[in-house]
Structure formats: structure tokens, C-alpha cells
Design brief:
This protein has helices spanning 3-36, 46-73, 81-91, 161-213, 228-283, 290-322, 334-346, 371-387, 447-457, and strands spanning 96-102, 105-109, 137-146, 152-160, 330-333, 354-359, 366-369, 394-402, 406-413, 462-467, 471-479. By secondary structure, the chain is an alpha+beta fold. The protein has three domains: 20-176, Beta-Lactamase, CATH 3.30.450; 217-325, Helix Hairpins (Orthogonal Bundle); 326-479, 2-Layer Sandwich (Heat Shock Protein 90). The protein has a five-stranded mixed sheet with strand order 6-8-9-11-10. Strands 2-1-4-3 form a four-stranded antiparallel sheet. Strands 5-7 form a two-stranded antiparallel ribbon. β1 and β2 form a beta hairpin. α2 runs antiparallel to α4 (161-213), α4 (161-213) runs parallel beside α5 (228-283) and α5 packs antiparallel against α6 (290-322). It is rod-shaped. It is found in: Cell membrane. InterPro entries: HAMP_dom (IPR003660), HATPase_C_sf (IPR036890), HATPase_dom (IPR003594), His_kinase_dom (IPR005467), HisK_dim/P_dom (IPR003661), HisK_dim/P_sf (IPR036097), HssS/ArlS-like (IPR050398), Sig_transdc_His_kin-like_C (IPR004358). Keywords: ATP-binding, Cell membrane, Kinase, Membrane, Nucleotide-binding, Phosphoprotein, Transferase, Transmembrane, Transmembrane helix, Two-component regulatory system.
């Protein structure tokens, strides 16, 4: 339930519950009083007033019915004291009484009101005044009739106003206090539970904010409500998780940066040292023959080319890692594309040492790729196979297969193979199975890392399978066009 709905419900409940409780308690008390008392003043309760007033109305109705029946049968019966006592007991209400008047003389009055009533205070025969009151009594009904001798008769049903007013006065403060207690309790309980359902989640949010401010991003927010605060708590928890992931990623980037600087420093230091050594040899006159001079210059050029390749690969990898390398996708048939790549690479290979072939399906396989970047991936993988070939003639096969969503390209060689422990790390930057980072075979150590970044930009995946001493297969997948 939303906070707005909860507050509306609480407001309505604060109005309805006290009203319902007062009526419910009144009904219980009236029922109890009706069964257990004679409706006297001894109860001294707020609810007694309502019970007494209802009893008065009921007694008046009951009396009129009996009187009307008796008037039709025998009006002189109202001169019989025993009958009048019986009639009085039948209504059984201590605040009221019966008065019988014959002509101008009161012939009977109930003991309860005998001392406070006199004939002049009663209305005349056939009076039009209804419910006449004075300071002592209140006439609820007046029944006029004729006795058998023709005399005028009147029967009055009256209420002792002094006692009734005294009872109401004594109970007025209890009525007010009872209502106030019910209102205070109802409003207090509803306010407590409503505020509790709001304040506890807010306190939890405050604790979480303080934890995050102190750098504790592992503190999980525990808010289970489904209202607006619960939605804020869910958003806060998502923010905490994203902030934690961002910080972890930042820390990882920092570690990667340190590792990258270390690797660059190491890989650049070796060729720079060699270049400096050969230049010093030339300067000191060690290269004193044309053959030595040519050897020194060739070595310097080779080292400088290696450094240039390393810097270019590093620059490309950095752009791929930061997502700043532009990709131009186009739809191609992967069969024709692979055949063109194989033909281009074969142009520069020594076929006496290396044999590169392709195997493609007979039906077209359309993919959406950046042809330049995918060709770089293939050349990096092929180049890696050439660098780590065995003493036998190197055989490289590029095989294209497909499944429902992807075209899968396998580049298989019969080289040295890769140790099982090293296989999971070959796509890491600067990783070489040789821990000494020997650079005599050339390369920047970024070829497969760059290939992985390029394939991931194509929403594909890249992996390797290898058997030491038998060869290696590098696989990568490209999403089919329309998938």
C-alpha cells in the first residue's frame, strides 16, 4: 500500500473506529443493563443515559397500549389502586410514574412522584398541549376518557425531571471523557503504526547513506515495503550495487594500468638497450668493416620496427579497451571473405615452410562485420601460429562452420601447442607462456588480446583448444546477419 493510500486509510479509520466502538460498547452496556438492573441511577455511567432514554420511550408505548385496551373494556378500573399498581409494575421504570385524575382531583399517583405533583400543574381535560413540562415533571402522554358515571378522567405518564436531569449532569463528564479516551487511543495507535511503517524504512535509508559515506559499499539495504519508500530503497540498493561495481572496475582499471605500464616498460627496455648498445658500438668504431656496419644497422632497424609495432598495437588495444575505435559494419558472405583473406595472406608466405588453406560451406553465410578489423583478427591469429611453429612444415587450415545464430571460424595449426595451464591466459594482454618474456620471436604480446577485443565488439566470442606437441585451434564466432 502506498503512503498516500495508507494516510487516507488512517484518516478514515480515525473517524470511523471511535464511532463504531462507541456504538458497539453502548449496545453491550444497554443489553447488560436491560438484563441486570431496574434502570435506576446506581450505574452512574455515560452509556446509562442512552439506555434510560430508550427505556422511557419503550415504557410509554407499552403503557398506552395497555391503557387503550382497558378503556375500551372498563374505564372504572383506573379507580382500582391494585390495578394501577399492577399497571405501574408492568412498565417497571423508576424514573417515571402514573397519575390518574378524576375531574379536578388526583385520585392516584405513583409513590415515586407523589410528593412533587399537584393537580394545578397538570393540563386540563382534552388539552391540546403535548408533552407539557415544568421544573419537576415532564408529561410523556395524556389519555383522556370518561368514567362510567360520566366524570372526566385523565391518565398521565410522567417523568421525574429532577432525577433525570441530575443523572444526565452526573454522567456528562463521563460521556466526554469516554469519547476522548476512545479518540485518543484510536488516533494514538493508528498514528504510531502508520508513522512506524514510514520512519523505520527512512531510518534504514539513513543508515545505508551513512555506511556508503564511510566507504562501506557492502551494506545491503533491507526494506521490504511496497510503497514509495520501498521504491526509493530499491533504487538506492541498485545505486549501491552500481557504485560498488564501478569502484571495483576502477580498481581493476588501476591494476591493469599499473600492469600495462610495467609490461610496456619491460618490452620497450629490451630493444632500447639493444639499440643503444649497437649505436655505441658504431660510435666506438667496433663496426669497422662494412659487414659489421650492415649487421649493426640491420639489428637497429629490426629493434626499431619491433618497437614501432609494439607502440601501434598498444595504441590500438588502448582504443579498443576504451571503446574509442570506430567500427564500420557491412554485410558480407563469410565464405568469399575467408577465401579472399587466405589468398592475401598466402601472397606473403614462404610456401616451402607454411601451407595455408581454407574450407568453407557450399551455401552462403551472411554476417555483419567490419571487414578490416576481422581481417586483423585473422592475421594476428595466423601470425601467432607462425611465430610458435614447430620444426615441421606448418599447416594452417581456416575452417568455416555454422549453427543457428553464428558463423564459427576455426584457425587450426600443427604447431607446438599450448600447455593446458597456460591456455586460459593466452588472450590476456602481454601474456606469454614463456615467463622470461623472450622477444626474439618478435611480436608485441597483444595480438590475441586485440583479437579478443575485436570479436567482442562483434558480439561474438573467442576461445582456444590445444594439445601440447600436436597443435592449436583458435575459434571465434560471428553473429549471422539478421540474428
Amino acid at each position: 500500500m502506498s503512503i498516500k493510500s495508507r494516510l487516507k486509510f488512517s484518516y478514515i479509520a480515525m473517524l470511523l473506529i471511535p464511532f463504531i466502538l462507541i456504538i458497539f460498547i453502548s449496545n453491550i452496556f444497554v443489553s447488560y443493563t436491560t438484563e441486570s438492573s431496574k434502570y435506576n441511577l446506581s450505574g452512574n455511567t455515560a452509556i446509562n443515559s442512552a439506555a434510560i432514554f430508550g427505556k422511557i420511550i419503550s415504557s410509554n408505548t407499552k403503557l398506552l397500549k395497555k391503557v387503550n385496551n382497558q378503556l375500551l373494556d372498563n374505564p372504572d378500573k383506573f379507580l382500582d389502586k391494585d390495578y394501577l399498581l399492577q399497571l405501574e409494575r408492568s412498565v417497571d421504570f423508576n424514573y417515571s410514574g402514573i397519575i390518574v385524575r378524576k375531574n379536578a382531583e388526583i385520585v392516584y399517583s405513583s409513590d415515586y412522584i407523589k410528593d412533587i405533583i399537584n393537580s394545578p400543574s397538570l393540563p386540563p381535560f382534552k388539552s391540546d398541549v403535548i408533552n407539557k413540562s415544568n421544573k419537576d415533571i415532564h408529561i410523556l402522554s395524556q389519555q383522556d376518557f370518561y368514567f362510567k358515571d360520566g366524570s372526566q378522567g385523565s391518565l398521565f405518564y410522567v417523568v421525574n425531571m429532577d432525577d433525570f436531569k441530575d443523572m444526565i449532569a452526573r454522567n456528562a463528564i463521563i460521556v466526554v471523557l469516554s469519547a476522548l479516551i476512545i479518540l485518543i487511543l484510536t488516533n494514538g495507535i493508528l498514528t504510531y503504526f502508520t508513522s512506524k511503517s514510514i520512519l523505520i524504512p527512512l531510518k534504514e535509508l539513513e543508515n545505508a547513506a551513512n555506511k556508503i559515506k564511510q566507504g562501506d559499499l557492502d551494506y545491503k539495504i533491507n526494506i521490504s515495503t511496497k510503497d514509495e519508500i520501498g521504491e526509493v530503497g530499491t533504487s538506492f540498493e541498485e545505486m549501491r550495487m552500481q557504485l560498488k561495481e564501478s569502484l571495483e572496475l576502477q580498481n581493476q582499471y588501476e591494476e591493469n594500468r599499473k600492469e600495462l605500464i610495467s609490461s610496456i616498460s619491460h618490452d620497450l627496455k629490451t630493444p632500447i638497450t639493444s639499440i643503444k648498445g649497437y649505436i655505441e658500438g658504431i660510435r666506438d668504431g667496433i663496426a669497422d668493416t662494412p659487414e659489421k656496419m650492415n649487421k649493426y644497422i640491420t639489428t637497429i632497424y629490426t629493434k626499431a620496427t619491433y618497437m614501432d609495432s609494439l607502440i601501434n598495437d598498444l595504441f590500438l588495444f588502448s582504443k579498443l579497451d576504451l571503446g574509442r575505435e570506430a567500427f564500420n559494419f557491412q554485410m558480407v558472405d563469410i565464405r568469399n571473405y575467408i577465401n579472399d583473406c587466405v589468398e592475401e595472406i598466402n601472397f606473403d608466405l614462404d610456401h616451402s615452410l607454411i601451407n595455408l588453406t581454407s574450407k568453407v560451406p557450399t551455401t552462403p553465410i551472411l554476417v555483419n562485420i567490419d571487414v578490416y578489423q576481422v581481417k586483423r583478427t585473422i592475421m594476428n591469429i595466423v601470425g601467432n601460429s607462425i611465430k610458435y611453429k614447430s620444426n615441421d612444415k606448418l599447416l594452417i587450415d581456416i575452417i568455416v562452420t555454422e549453427n543457428s545464430d553464428y558463423a564459427v571460424i576455426e584457425i587450426r595449426d600443427n604447431g607446438k601447442g599450448i600447455d593446458t595451464e597456460a591456455l586460459p591466459y593466452i588472450f590476456d594482454r602481454f601474456y606469454r607462456a614463456d615467463s622470461s618474456r623472450e622477444t626474439s620471436i618478435g611480436g608485441s604480446g597483444l595480438g590475441l588480446a586485440i583479437a579478443k577485443k575485436i570479436i567482442e565488439e562483434h558480439e561474438g566470442s573467442i576461445w582456444a583448444e590445444s594439445t601440447l606437441g600436436k597443435g592449436t585451434s583458435i575459434f571465434f564466432s560471428l553473429k549471422k546477419y539478421g540474428q
